């Protein structure tokens, strides 16, 4: 399956160079790319970037697709699905667990639903760590045209397979960790 790393955010909470902030000698976004590349069921990884980020990201290696919408993650997923089915992750997730990605891709294939998304017991979803069918793109398009940019809303209205996080190995939860502000970096080195 195609792996997609979203790299089109504003990084308002962190500062605009969030995805290029170096951790262990590598830009933050490179960690996400490499973690996805390590998953057995990921064939190729591409970056879906805002027009602003495109030029800088091209130096990293993976193909860069431009997200012309820049309306938030929903636009990134919409752009990604023009390439086919995809596992989508955020570029600010440096601790993605490849084994967990493989698990979700396997469940996506087995269940045959248009989205396979992790869910916490309080109902909170992890849509930037999920597998999507290209068929989900029509849902997104309709919703975006209505001016509704909620990715969670689109998922909730579709025929989805939810993976209950609390039933999985506890060690997989760090996969969702994402860097939103400078203080989050402390959790990485600790
Ligand atoms: N392609 C694309 N990716 C996006 C867009 N908005 C957010 N992202 C990405 O989605 C992921 C999650 O973003 P967040 O951490 O919620 O937000 P952010 O915009 O990076 O940062 P804040 O401005 O602080 O909220 C990151 O990898 C972003 O680069 C968008 O409009 N297009
Ligand atoms: Mg984030």
UniProtKB/TrEMBL annotation:
GO biological processes: Mo-molybdopterin cofactor biosynthetic process
E.C. number(s) listed in UniProt: 2.7.7.77
UniProt-listed Gene3D superfamilies: Spore Coat Polysaccharide Biosynthesis Protein SpsA, Chain A
CC annotations in GO: cytoplasm
Binding-site residues, Mg(2+): 92
DNA damage is among the record's keywords: no
Record's protein name: Probable molybdenum cofactor guanylyltransferase
Species of the source: Thermococcus celer Vu 13 = JCM 8558
């Amino acid at each position: 399956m195609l792996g997609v790393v979203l790299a089109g955010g504003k990084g308002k909470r962190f500062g605009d160079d969030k995805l290029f902030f170096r951790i262990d000698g590598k830009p933050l976004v490179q960690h996400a790319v490499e973690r996805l590349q390590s998953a057995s069921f990921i064939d190729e990884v591409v970056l879906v970037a805002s027009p602003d980020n495109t030029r800088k990201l091209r130096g990293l290696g993976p193909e860069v697709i431009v997200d012309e919408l820049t309306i938030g993650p929903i636009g990134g997923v919409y752009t990604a699905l023009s390439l086919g089915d995809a596992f989508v992750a955020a570029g600010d997730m440096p601790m993605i667990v490849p084994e967990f990605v493989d698990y979700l891709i396997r469940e996506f294939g087995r269940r045959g639903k248009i989205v396979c998304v992790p869910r916490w017991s309080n109902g909170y979803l992890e849509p930037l760590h999920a597998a999507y069918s290209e068929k989900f793109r029509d849902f997104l398009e309709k919703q975006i045209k209505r001016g509704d940019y909620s990715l969670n809303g689109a998922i909730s209205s579709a025929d989805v397979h939810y993976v209950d996080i609390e039933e999985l190995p506890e060690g997989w939860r760090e996969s969702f960790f994402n860097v939103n502000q400078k203080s989050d970096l402390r959790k990485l080195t600790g």
